[in-house]
Amino acid sequence: MSEGCIPLRLISRQQKVPLFRAKSMEKLHQPFVTCNSSSYKESGASGLEVKLAIMRSKLEEAETIKALHKEAINNKESKLAQYADLYSRETVKCNDLAKTVDYLTQKSTELSQRESKLETSLKSHLESKAHQNDDDDDDPKLKKNLSDYIEKNLQLAIGDLETLSKSSKIKILSLRKFHFENQVNFQTRKLEKMMSFSTRLSEGENEPEIKGVAVDEEGNIYVTDSANKLVKCFTKDGQCKWTTETLTQPPYNVAIVDSKHIAVTKSYSDSLDIRRSDDGVRVKEVFVNLFCPFPGLAVYKDNVAIVESCDTLENGCVNIFKMTSDYNLISKQTFFGDSNKPHVHFIPMYEPRYVHLTKHYILISSKMALHTLSLEGDLVALTAPSNTQPHGLCTDFAGNILCVDKIKSQIQITPANFPKCILSKEDGLEDPTDITIKHGHLFVCDGHMIKVFV
Fold it and tell me: Comparing 32-41, 260-269, 350-359, 405-414, which segment has the lowest mean pLDDT?
């Protein structure tokens, strides 16, 4: 037995009192600095007190672990509540669509009943006319004209009914398709190539160099061909719809402004072209005082972002404009990346090339990194993997950032600032430049080809 320690049995005999008396309980609740038995030997503490101190220390450790587990459980319950709220909102949307389907089905049934009544009424009218004009029965011309008139109107009524019913069903199907296809998380989706087509229109044309792509609600695909100085429009089936006249400067990027107009930036040009989306005719030229080789462009509602990067400058800048109803641009703010320029916001970025706008963020791909800025210009995130050259970028429904890696010929997705490859050379990519997402489809500019993945 070590020196200074008294057995429990001896303690009880010498003191001749119960072990757990009130005085001992008071000592139990006194704070202990350490559980080292040697320190208690020096202080003259009994073996029971040493054991009680050790038990108290273990109890405190257990309470700490319990508190950590409780915090983790609370975090999980909070996430479950968020998921439940999201599920509830999506269920409401689905119920609204179901109600719309039921409403249109009811209207279609009512139209069918009206068509049946019309047919019955017309036949009854024909029979009554025949009985009232027995003398005219011998006139086949009059009878034939009346019969043709009734048959013609009957067919028109049936045709209108079929057209309305068909369009209603198509509209509902397209609403369902739009609602569900746009809610695509590309992080968890295995992509497969659906189609591809060449943007080269003739053998005499130069090999196209597609720098930018945009897709409207109808599925029309707009591309900028810098090699031939053309903006081209293709249908969703890959058929050329129109091309612009040969431009004075190579077009660099394109963006959808509204249902009737697109915007186009040009390399080494100080203007922005506003063109009609149905034929490509320029309706307005807006001067923005920019003159750079890579004027990346993005439009979100009435906000317009244009990146500026010059060969002579190590860093560029991002210009944010507000577009008016007559397509003029009002400068809002500029976020500089060149420390030699007078500015308010400074975000170091080397040769920015592409930009993407969302409701809350500005995404910029520079030569060495991917920048995420707030709308006030604060740097939120910076992704700079080694041996990469970010180009075109966009976001999916889940908020993941998809970006082209020019060096590796890859499409990378960046959830939580950790890049992950979702398309590469093994999937048929050769020289990707720009990407965009529409209706759950990923459109990739790859050399002179447009490739669509789902």
Answer: 32-41
What is the DSSP code (8-state) at residue 315?
B
Lookup result for tokens 């993407």: 356
DSSP letter string, 59-80: HHHHHHHHHHHHHHHHHHHHHH
Q: What is the Cα–Cα distance from 181 to 217, expressed in whole angstroms? A: 13
Q: Identify residue 453 by its one-letter amino acid code.
A: F
Please list, residue by residue across 124-152, b when 16 or more beta carbons sit within 10 angstroms of its beta carbon and e when fewer do: eeeeeeeeeeeeeeeeeeebeebeeebee
Q: Which among 391, 399, 384 has a CA at the least distance from the CA of 355?
A: 391
Closest among 288, 289, 206, 299 to 246, alpha carbons compared:
206
Which band of pLDDT confidence, cut at 50, 70 and 90, is reported for residue 155? low
Distance CA 71, CA 64 (A): 11
Predicted local distance difference test score (pLDDT) of residue 191: 87
CA distance 432 to 406: 6
- The answer to whether 265 touches 295, Cβ cutoff 8 Å, is yes
Phi, psi of 431 (to 5 degrees): -145, 65
Name residues whose C-beta falls within 8 Å of residue 189's C-beta, 6 or more positions apart in sequence. Answer: none
Contacts 24+ apart (CB under 8 A), 187-193: 187/396, 187/398, 187/400, 187/413, 187/415, 187/420, 187/422, 191/422, 191/423, 191/427, 191/442, 191/453, 191/454, 192/453, 192/454, 193/427, 193/428, 193/451, 193/452, 193/453
| pTM of the shown model | 0.61
Phi-psi sector, 88: left (phi>0), alpha (psi -120 to 50), beta = alpha
DSSP output for 248-303: SS-EEEEEE-SSSEEEEEETT-SEEEEEETTT--EEEEEE-----S---EEEETTE
The structure tokens 């930018």 sit at 212
pLDDT confidence band for 368 (50 / 70 / 90): confident
| Mean pLDDT within 142-151 | 59
- Look at 22-26, 310-314, 351-355, 446-450 and tell me which has the smallest mean pLDDT: 22-26
Return the pLDDT at 52. 87
pLDDT-derived band at 100 (thresholds 50, 70, 90) equals: confident
